[in-house]
Fold this protein.
Amino acid sequence: MFFFNLSLGEFTALFGAVSSAVLALYLLDRSRRKIKVATMRFWRPSEKPPEAKHRRRIQQPWSMIMQIIGMGLLLAAIAQLRLGSPDRSSRDHVLLLDTSAWTAAKSDPQRRLIDEAKVHAIRWLRALPSSDRVMVVRADALPTPATVFETNRAVAEQAILQSQPGSSALNIQAAFDFARRMQRQHGQGTGEIVLAGAGRANQADLPDPATLPASLRLLPVMEPKRNVGIRRFHLRRSPNDAQLWEIFVAVRNFGRAPEAVPLMLTFGNAPIGSSRLIIAPGAEETARFEFRTKSAGWMEARLQVRDGLLDDNIALLEIPEQKQVQVAIFTRQPELLRPLMAANPRINASYAPPEAFKPDTASDIVIIDRFYPPQRPRRPALWIAPPPQGSPLAVAKSNTSAHITRWRAEHPIAQGLRTLDLKLDGATLFVQSPGVDPIAEADGGSLVAAQANPRAVFLGVHPGLGALKFELAAPLLMANILEWMAPEALRRWELDGESVGTVKVALDPHTDPASIQVTGEDQQPLPFSVSENTLQFYSATRGNVRVRTGFQETVYSLSLPDVGDSAWEAPAKIRRGLGRIAGSSSPVRDLWPWLALLGAVLILAEWLLFGRLRLRSRAAATPIEFFNRFTAPFRKAS
């Protein structure tokens, strides 16, 4: 037996104060008495005010005792006197319901793992004492509370029944940390932390055995005997052939026996390749394919097997249309530029003499080689060594010897260019002007400059002549210029089918962090971090995520469920199943309703026995006395 709202000392102090007040009221008498006199002639007013007289003895001890006992019973009701042990009262439990992607698997053809986990969770919930509170938490990559600490079992059961499998893997350590934090911040009496589910997670998310909760209980489910799934579906364009896609499909065996898995690859519902993979238990195998196309469409990788989890047997990627960049080159020496244009298979170059120039040429990029046309082009233009007379950019020096002193590495055109020991003869140096960014600087001006609006690049030296012709900087500079002038057409594409969750992207060491963009399916930016040439972002939902780094764009199709690669082997000392539920063997019973009722009845009885209602009943006149008082004036008059 114990008090829930008050301690024993607090109850004793309050009860002592109330009892003392009642006793003082019974000892103190300040009431006036009514005295009948024959005439006011013999009445003398008192020269001294009436003094309060303290009684030496209590005239109605039973009335006082009944009031003190009644007040004590009401105080005990307010303090919530309970029958039982304090350590069995109102415990706060956290139910972690596994809603990871793995719980969508079926241990038998009729029921999923999450359905079995729901049954175990509801049975455990119904076995708890009615005074215990429960918080239901849906646990996958991030623990999400479905209820607060709740004594209403109907609310908790509804939250359990409405839970469905997600797309991410279970983070067991994060779920345990969240449950402990909720018990510390919002709990009253620490109860159990219950994990209902399969407990499969990635190796990095498994809990440390030394930090497991002391009151942990597991409600395990029976896992499927066999399951194989696609872990990654990667497509990239061949660096030597713009129309050739290199395809990689990684498949993992989650079962405990070797599997022979047929893999089928289709494009636009037409088969384009197949393979048969022999995969050891817990191992991963990769199949490689090649496919040539320049049209857009959907490519599908499918495992032709029926196992526990069907969601990871299919992966889809959307291939974008392959476009050719049309470059119109006006020059008298096409042989100087032809090798540079042929180095990129995605460029379709056409050559014409300067006399054939038109400002509205139907092309994506216009190259003007060492002449000034009568009208400026209406397309993005590359000016190669323009003559000083009529140059679109002011010329500081012409036909001079130049030595590159600095590359502006922050500009995309200068990416990967570090050559500083070149001496270039016959060069043209431009005046640095507002709105024009210097790319390569030399003594006396800019050797390479770029203008953003309208988009144009100015070269003070021909890349196919002089010392620059024999340097690797020439094709790299030309490729950077063309990609900067037509970024969408010349963007390097990679398509990656990944699992939902955390994605890590390897970056080029020279990647500018300011040029990185990560956008989701709704074109809204996603948070990311960059550390040691590795970009990392997280997505808990399925969809496409685009990562742009300079001229390269990688599309991550997060369509595969993240199935944890490890099954957690819990220590043998942890409680499993229903077993003996905390508090169920010694239930706590509330006594306050009966105490409040008994106290009210006792005070009411005292009022009826000793209160003013009884005094009034004693002072009431009998019918004869009332008749005599009424007829007295008439008798006196007669």
